[in-house]
Each structure stands twice: as C-alpha cells, then as structure tokens.
C-alpha cells in the first residue's frame, strides 16, 4: 500500500509517498518536487495553468488573471470573494479546488492509482486567536479534498509532520523544537523522541504546538509597503488637507499576495481617478492606476520577493521593476531589510519561546532545534534563532520537503 501526504503550502505544494520503506516526494512539474501554489486563467485561449507554468504565462505577457497564496483565504471572508473571468465567476474556494485537483491528478498519474486516503498538512493556526474561523478553514479544506474524490482525509499539523521526518534519523532520546517558517505562517512543535531507527519504530510524544500568522508573505508586504509603494502614492497627502494621508487599504492590498485581486474592481480605479488630482503628487497616483489596469501588482511583489531572497546571500541588491514606466530599480540593503522585518522576526521568536513554555520546559531542555520552511533563508531570522537557542544543536532540514515527507510517514500511522 502507498501512503500519501499533501503539503498544500501558501507558496509551494508537495505530494509525498511512502511505498514500503521508500519515502519520496513526487515531481509535480518537470523535475521539481515543489510546485508553486499559483493559478493563471489565460484570457486568450481559455486555458488554466498552475505552478511555474502559470507564473511564466502571467509574467511573460499573456492576457489573463494570475492568483497566488490562495491558502491564506481559508477561514477568512476572502474565500467567498468572487472573481469574474470573461463570462464566468469563480470564488477563491473554486480556485483552491481547481489547483489541488490538478495537483492530485498529476500525483495519481505518477502513482498509477487513485488516491483514496490522504494526510493533509495544516498550520497550527490558519487564523490566529479565532478557533471558530480556524475550524472553518480546516472544514473548507476537508470539503474541497473530499469533493475531489478522496474518501479518507486526516489532517496533521505541519510542524509535527516535519518532526516525524526528522524523527527517522534519531537514535537516542531527544527533545526537539521544530521551527517551520513558510510563506503564510510560522509553526512550532516541541516533540520528545524516545527511540531510534526506522519510520516504524520511532516513538514520539508531541508536548506542545504554537503558531502565528506571520511568514515570508509578510516580509514581502512590509518591504513592498515601505520601499516600493511610495513610488505609487502611498503616504501621499491631500493638497488641501495635508494632515490627511491617502487611504492605505489600496496599498495594503497591492502589497499582500492574496489580496491583490481585490484591486481589480472598477470602483477601485474610479476612486483612484477621483483622488488623483487632490493629491500632492498626482502623477504617482496615475502610476498606481496604470499598474492596476495592466494587472501588474503581482510583478511588483515578485520583484520584492526576488530581492529579499537575494539578500539571503548578498549584502545589497535592487528591487528591479522593468515593467513600470522608466524601468524603476530601487536599492535594498540587508540592513534595510533587517530593519523592515525586525518586529516580525521578534514575534516569530517569541512564538517559538511560547511553544517551549506551553510544553512546560525551559530553553536548556531543548536538545535540538530542527529548521524548515523557505523563510529560514532569511539571514536575520536564522541568526536570531542561532543566538536564541545557542545551547541547542541546530539541524537544518530540507526547507521545501520536510513537511511533505513527514505527512506520508504519518499516513502510514493513520491508515496502517
Ligand atoms: N532564500 C530565501 N530567503 C528568504 N526567503 C525565502 C528564500 N527562499 C524562499 N523564501 C521564502 O519562503 C517562502 C516559501 O516557503 P515555503 O515553501 O516553506 O512556504 P509554504 O510551505 O508554501 O507556506 P506555508 O507553510 O506558510 O503555508 C516564501 O515567502 C519565499 O519568499
Ligand atoms: Mg509550509
């Protein structure tokens, strides 16, 4: 029997399979085991694409609608947000169904079987401090996967899955703090391992979990707002009432991967046109309207994300925006990045400490800190983790597949 796990991520999705003793992550797009969580409706030929292909179609010129980070809509009102595409309308829940449906059919084609039983990963909190909305998020995801024909669906917390993946390498007793910093959320588990050996013989006890809705998308958002949006009128004041700033909501939406679509409403462009002559620098507002009209805000965030990732290795880079008029390029140094994201990083570290406190433990009780998630590529964050947990062994897991692999291991435990 094959045991399958689905890690539906805010930015990337993976499917893993445990077949006997063999654990693998399936290549979902060419050789890549990590498929971007994106979808593109092509207005020209009516097709839809997912993954990198969706991104390429959007970025390199086809007319259409691009969506990313739809996982963030789970448990929020945005899940019912309606998108009009030509003569049809879709809700974000339809987008998620379409995306996961395509992922599962690619997986099934490779496995040569239908997927009847599946362990699906979920963050500790889809929504912070709102158990009802959090449960709704899980229920919606369960319904979507069930509509796609999967009969047995179990959920597992993403950091526990990562812990299970690490667990197969453990030989002695170990108390592990898992830190998984993704695009949408940061998730933590404290797990005590008692045994050694193969997937079958690992004994683990989950002592505590903690999560916060902060991730790489929030880093992108703060960089976009602080460095890029002023170019488009953010923080502009009214000529006649200099004590008043332009409404922030448009710029917040333009800086949030999962909210960009809210800008593609005629009322938004009409309001921006009304505001334009009233602002100190009307041309910046005109540039913002043009950005929205040409469906380019995702390109801005892509440029921001690329710059952020470059600063994982370099000390300075540029946010390159060749698609805006006069091809703008804004410098971004690692120290500027650190200033922008510092508060968010402090909250992430505080949540890690909260997980330890919830476990009734103290920092010295943590033998190992196991790291995963793409946002661990942020140097400021990895330095903060290293100094916060200087007495623990730090183990770098595979940033993109640790959760998925653990979900397949868990499928064996759950479905036998
Ligand atoms: N080298 C890097 N430096 C900084 N950030 C990076 C780097 N590489 C990837 N990222 C960020 O990591 C995030 C994606 O990580 P990951 O694939 O773990 O998220 P996810 O699993 O899809 O999200 P989640 O688990 O929150 O739903 C993105 O925000 C991306 O910008
Ligand atoms: Mg993840």
TrEMBL record:
InterPro entries: ATPase_NBD, Hsp_70_fam
Pfam families found in the cross-reference section: HSP70 (PF00012)
Superkingdom classification of source: Bacteria
UniProt key word Amino-acid biosynthesis: no
Keywords on record: ATP-binding, Nucleotide-binding
Keyword hit for ATP-binding: yes
SUPFAM superfamilies tied to this protein: Actin-like ATPase domain (SSF53067)
Molecular function GO terms recorded: ATP binding; ATP-dependent protein folding chaperone
Name recorded for this polypeptide: Putative chaperone protein
């Amino acid at each position: 029997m094959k045991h399958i796990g689905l890690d539906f991520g805010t930015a990337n999705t993976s499917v893993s399979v445990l077949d006997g003793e063999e654990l693998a992550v399936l290549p979902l797009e060419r050789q890549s085991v990590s498929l971007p969580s994106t979808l593109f409706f092509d207005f020209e030929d009516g097709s839809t694409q997912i993954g990198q292909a969706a991104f390429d179609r959007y970025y390199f010129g086809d007319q259409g609608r691009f969506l990313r980070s739809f996982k963030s809509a789970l448990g929020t009102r945005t899940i019912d947000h309606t998108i009009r595409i030509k003569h049809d309308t879709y809700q974000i829940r339809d987008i998620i169904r379409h995306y996961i449906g395509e992922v599962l059919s690619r997986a099934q084609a490779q496995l040569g079987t239908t997927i009847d039983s599946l362990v699906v990963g979920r963050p500790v909190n889809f929504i912070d401090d709102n158990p009802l909305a959090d449960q709704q998020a899980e229920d919606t995801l369960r319904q979507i996967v069930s509509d796609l024909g999967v009969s047995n669906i179990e959920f597992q917390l993403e950091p526990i899955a990562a812990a299970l993946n690490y667990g197969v390498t453990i030989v002695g007793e170990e108390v592990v703090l898992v830190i998984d910093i993704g695009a949408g959320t940061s998730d933590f588990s404290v797990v005590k391992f008692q045994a050694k050996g193969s997937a079958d013989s690992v004994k683990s006890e989950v002592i505590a979990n903690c999560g916060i809705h902060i991730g790489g998308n929030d880093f992108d958002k703060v960089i976009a707002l602080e460095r890029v949006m002023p170019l488009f009128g953010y923080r502009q004041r009214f000529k006649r009432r200099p004590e008043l700033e332009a409404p922030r909501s448009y710029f917040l939406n333009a800086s949030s991967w999962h909210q960009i679509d809210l800008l593609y409403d005629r009322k938004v462009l009409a309001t921006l046109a009304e505001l334009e002559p009233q602002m100190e620098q009307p041309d910046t507002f005109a540039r913002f309207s043009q950005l929205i009209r040409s469906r380019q805000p995702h390109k801005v965030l892509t440029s921001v994300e690329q710059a952020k990732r470059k600063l994982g290795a370099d000390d300075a880079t540029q946010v390159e925006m060749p698609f805006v008029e006069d091809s703008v390029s804004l410098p971004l140094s690692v120290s500027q990045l650190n200033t922008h994201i510092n508060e968010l990083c402090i909250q992430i570290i505080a949540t890690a400490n909260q997980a330890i406190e919830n476990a009734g433990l103290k920092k010295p009780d943590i033998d190992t800190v196991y790291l995963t998630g793409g946002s661990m590529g942020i140097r400021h964050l990895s330095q903060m983790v290293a100094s916060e947990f200087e007495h623990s062994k730090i183990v770098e897991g595979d940033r993109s597949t640790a959760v998925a692999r653990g979900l397949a291991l868990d499928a064996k435990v759950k479905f036998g």
